[in-house]
Specification:
By secondary structure, this protein is of the alpha/beta class. 35% of the residues lie in helices and 12% in strands. The protein has one domain: TIM Barrel (Alpha-Beta Barrel), CATH 3.20.20.80. Helix 10 links the parallel strand 7 and strand 8. Helix 3 packs across helix 4. It starts with 8 loop residues before the first strand and ends in a 47-residue tail after the last strand.
């Protein structure tokens, strides 16, 4: 492992020009990435979590892999590691961004064969790339809380097998909390959790609960999303500070949601989600469209 999970600091990054994952990779905008990625450095970042997209590979094949290579080059130029996320199972009902649907998982094809060409192509090109700090197999699988739980778990077990055939880089899954984390813990080297707490001080309890789980399972713990949103810049900044400083107090590495303003859900005041202090206020970037730090978030500037 090139970097201990506890040492990770950074953000989830969705480029500002794209609202949908497929478009991010089929219409890769290098200038946007070169403009936005360096803003992570002012906050002392060393890693960005980047969502890839299965449907983009289905659409354009090797062109999608070339876009991933360009993204890796840009991060590397800024001394940032990448945590690629192979698949996404989360969706927003108002602003769906793409990913693996329940219908995809219910396909009659045996052994999830439709996913194999994408995983194989990614592994053949990037499996042990030193610019990658960790592979995240999937953002927010929903099991064990949905009707498709058994199929989803079997699918991720198969994705895990296909990935481990090629890579020696540590593997995680971007699980949410509690039973959802535990459901997939045996598949990962590093346990991830997404504590979207809504009150100052609540993060302490959540950290203690998940650290106890990690000790029980004998695996390190990493926070790969947090910092719930608010339309009030200073309210959100205070809650983000509570989250990040608490994680650091407990020695847990963190990747906050999200770096930059943009078209992706939660990236603007017009396209908010439910991870909010109050319903409809999931506005969550740290950096504004002009490249400045969002008011109330300057406390994190460390560069």
């Amino acid at each position: 492992m090139t970097m201990q999970p506890s040492a990770l600091r950074g953000f989830n990054y969705q480029p500002g020009h794209s609202a949908v994952l497929q478009y991010t990779w089929t219409n890769f905008d290098r200038a946007c990435w070169e403009r936005e990625v360096p803003t992570a450095l002012r906050f002392g970042s060393n890693t960005l979590r980047i969502w890839l997209d299965w449907s983009a590979y289905l659409a354009v094949g090797p062109q999608m892999l070339d876009a991933v290579e360009s993204a890796l080059q840009i991060l590397d130029h800024n001394n940032l590691k990448m945590m690629p996320v192979l698949f996404n199972r989360w969706t927003d009902p108002l602003y769906p961004a793409g990913g693996v649907s329940t219908e995809d998982l219910n396909s009659p094809a045996e052994n999830f064969a439709a996913f194999a060409p994408y995983v194989t192509a990614m592994m053949e090109r990037f499996a042990n790339d030193e610019r990658i700090v960790m592979w995240d197999l999937c953002n927010e699988p929903q099991a064990p809380h949905t009707a498709v739980a058994d199929k989803e778990t079997a699918w991720l077990r198969r994705i895990n097998e296909m990935t481990r055939e090629h890579t020696e880089i540590p593997i995680t899954i971007g699980t949410m909390s509690g039973d959802n984390v535990r459901n997939f813990a045996d598949l990962v080297d590093v346990i991830s959790f997404h504590p979207y707490t809504r009150e100052i001080g609540e993060m302490k309890r959540v950290c203690e609960d998940h650290l106890a789980m990690a000790r029980e399972l004998g695996k390190p713990l990493l926070c790969t999303e947090m910092c719930c949103g608010s339309l009030d810049d200073f309210e959100r900044g205070a809650l983000a500070r509570d989250n990040i400083e608490t994680l650091e107090e407990y020695g847990i590495g963190w990747l906050a949601w999200q770096l930059a303003s943009g078209l992706f859900v939660t990236g603007s005041r017009e396209r908010t989600d439910s991870n909010a202090v109050r319903p409809g206020e999931g506005y969550m970037p740290f950096v504004l469209p002009d490249g400045s730090t969002r008011p109330g978030h300057e406390w994190l500037e460390r560069a």
